[in-house]
Amino acid sequence: STTPDPMSTTTPHPMSSTTTHPNHPSDSYYIGVARCDVTGPVVQVNMMGYAHPEQVANGLHTRLYSRAFVVADNQKQNRVAFVSFDGGMASQLLKLEVVKRLKEKHGDIFTERNVVISGTHTHSGPAGFFQFLLFEMTSLGHVEQSTTAFVDGIVESIELANSKLELGRIKIGSGLVDNGNINRSPTSYLLNPEAERARYTHDTEQSITVLSFDNLAGDPLGMLSWYPAHPTNMNFTNLLINSDNKGRASTLFEKMMRKPGETLAGKEEFVAAFAQANLGDVSPRTNGPVCVDTGLDCEPLSSTCNGTSQNCVGFGPGKDMFDSTDIIARRQLDAAKLVYKSATERLDGPVDWIHQYVDMTQQSVQLDDGSTVTTCKPGMGYSFAAGCTDGAGAFNFVQGMTRGTPFWNTIRDILAKIICTVEPPREYYNCHQPKPVLLPTGYMDKPYDWHPTIVDIQVLRIGQLLIAAVPGEYTTMAGRRLKERLYNEAVSQGMAGDTKVVLAGLSNVYTHYITTPEEYNAQRYEAASTIFGPHTFQVYQQKYTDLIAPLVAGNKDDVDLGPTPDLKPANQSRIAPVPHPDKLPPGINFGDVISDVNMTYTPGDTVKVTFHGANPRHNMKVRLGSTYLEIQRDEHGSWTTIYTDADWSTKFTWLETNSSAPPADITIYVIIEWNIPTDETAGSYRVLYHGDHMNEVGTITPFTGMSREFQVSPS
Length: 715
Known about the structure:
By secondary structure, the protein is an alpha+beta fold. It contains 13 helices and 38 strands.
């Protein structure tokens, strides 16, 4: 059957929100927003992002959150859910588990087709939430607590947002972020056609796209934005769980929008998400890379210093990584605030979605010259192992390697005989050229698959806005090309000229990077991590473009669903550390103070107290949404909590030491720090520590430690 054009004013699509209803304006939507904690384990877990085995968390700086935005048309016939969460990326395991849980409770209201889960890409969150081995190497396999915390929090945020649906309006606008990013592979960007580059003023995206959500009474509900910047201001020496610049910007915006009576971070009703975009070659270290041993510029093509990559490091813009995180967060915040307050264009039109699973190892596409090219089974190039200026790799790998070496090829081939059921043929290596394959992950299947092959191709529509959810990290120009192609296709299919396209990175399944074919030829880090070969981008571009016509026509059900991915392997590795019973010296109780606070402080000082503690992984269900610490102020004889572990000004550090004298028991210390804000109120304060200890038979008991009172005096 022929479906009426949803953009027509005379024959609206039956699912379109142009269908009016008493007291339901045509440009209104049902809107629900929510934020839930997804922090998970804060100790004994490797962090996801830098892939450094030694970056094992030993505490908490800021909590991690899932921020959900549910939008339905004003008849509640179609709805979509967009989630931005403070995690390294959406894994296929997370997406499938979340959808499974939602289907079990809510039927087909939420499915893999109308739910997008997008990671902010913080490199300071817990690892271990995948079903593919390569992503779990440094986390020593699957970490159930990481997965459970992410899934529970994401599901809860979607459910809560859905339960709060009310009629409202969505406005859209864009503005420029001042000095919020730089290109970390500028020499690769220059390989794109000169005429194409001449259309843009910068080699990174400077614009932030902002949605404002209000109810019909004009009360603010939420803000959702997209802007590309790697959350790598916190470097790999950081051992405290941290949401980096994206999460910091979110909590600052939410604090700005507090209502009377809202005083605690992460507890505000307003929800603000700084979601990720085409960040592949985009660094937040705006001072750029330098050689740490000489202070000179790095060699530009390979990002090396005297031939090695480890000393070429990006810096800035602050005096340390905490300061840099805050600065980049505030630059995004300042731009988003201006757009949020000034946006006037309302989204108006259908709510819809389209989704397809695609096996990226078996795809071909016809190029403009008439030739047909194909994708390859996944493979990681030599320069993947070099890392980048946000975080260098190991050994003697450098960026820009287009030829393998006899030594590493031999190592590769020996490994392939051990962990590949079928050894890669020569055609496979040829397919990836000019990438020299270091890890033939498309054939590495022992003890289970090393890489995904089936990906989500998905687009959401809210009025004139299209949200392309992409399974990885598109570079600047790759993202620009995709957005332009989708815009042109949408308009050619009948959408209006005011159509907007945003790209939501790191969504649904992680497949590393997607570069343009020109950038691929240089084989810097991003290109070496473009896993399906030199034509990855062209295939993705065609697959997304093919979905636009049925999306615009309202014919999403006519699209082949594609091959469904498996949930997870039964033989998944689980060798990461698990919590053991806690021990104390004789005569000591959990929560006893070892080193107490000073008696007086002034704003700008740092309060520090050390307790006898326990492993914070014992009672994750209780601690999710709660706090390990409280900073309290005496207000007229009543102690009032003013800061928790969700605040930027607090740090929770866990230390485990082995006694050298018998009995050789493990002693646990917890250090709580509070950097007193410069505008803090004078008065009497104290610090509380909340923990849970486990005895030899597994019984878990909560406890609380308390510092002595101290004074904060005017400076």
